[in-house]
Specification:
single chain, alpha+beta, Pdz3 Domain, 2-enoyl-CoA Hydratase, Chain A, domain 1, six-stranded mixed β-sheet, 10 helices, 28% helix, globular
Length: 409
Amino acid sequence: MQQDKHIPAILAVVIFSIFAFTGGYLLGQSPVAPVNLFGIVNGRTVQNPDDIKAFWEVWDLIHTRYLRQPVDDAALMDGAINGMLETLGDPHTRYLSPSDQEAATQSMSGEFQGIGAEVENVDGAITIVTPIDGSPAQAAGLQPGDILREADGVPLTGMDISEAAALVRGPAGTTVRLLIERDGETFEVEITRDVIKLPSARGEMLEEGIAYIRLSRFANNTDQELQDILTDLLAQNPTGIILDLRRNPGGALDTTVNIADQFLPEGVALVERFGDGRERQFQSSDKGLAEDIPLVVLIDEGSASASEVLSGAIQDRGRGVLIGNTSFGKGTVQTWQTLANDGGVRITIAEWLTPDKDSINETGLTPDYFIPLDPDNPDEDAQLQAAIDYLLGKTIISIPPAEAEPENN
């Protein structure tokens, strides 16, 4: 079979795009990316000509000698990009196929089709960070920490997260049967996919005269949604605010900084630290709507990334207290780059630190008050009640999780 003469040029553009990340974020992450053009870092060329030559030698060998022809050029390139990123050993750095890139863009814009769950690859296991509020995943009872082992009989363990997500995602009205592992036991659940509409903020006044605000994620317009809610609730003169960030998987960093500015007085909101040691501070102003009102933030093991950025800033600055459980522990910043094939790459470019320059990566934020939930009474929200009691001046008791006892050899 004769090779299309245009393919090498097209693929060269795709390969070049991998090395030529520039500033600017598709989905609103950090506005600074310390990545130089043309594959040159600190004055040294990192592209070995022999390695590039070897790549094309393998490419030609597949097209001229491989048994089963024709081969799928797009699949070959997807595999090459995936392999390159996997060598970094970073579960948050990954390639998105064109369909995955489209789904990610839709998610940040407020709507997509699927079961509605945020997932991460944890040691080869596709693990739920949190189901989205009001989603089929939440209705089916999926929980943070659940492991997706199979989708319609296809094993997901060890699979690239983009491939796994593509098997779980699908058109509204169709079903997917998932094999779930929870606490060492497995069970099956069939979920009907739906159009997931994603209003990311809601608020209400509680009977106790306290404003309750729930942020389910940090999308492109969440800061504006929050401003509208705050304006309405503060007009009702609440005695305090409860900001619920439980099961919030994060989102856009710029949006998060804007939201932090509503609650924090002037000062540092967070610090980004890049691989070369450079640091960039993000500042809050003195123009927030809710800088003085008593504040409680609810967090749990599903509070990740941008949720931890906001919670960490509030805790470090002494602006409010955290109630709930230890957060997820995702302390890195990703940028999204669209590629020439309409796919994309999500790549870790920095770690974020709290205003006191503490890192929470893989450890999470420790709440000021540990309040467990009763699994036998899912309708009883002890964490929310503790937040109400705290703002009413009542005594609440922290119940830290028991430390695991060392094994005797």
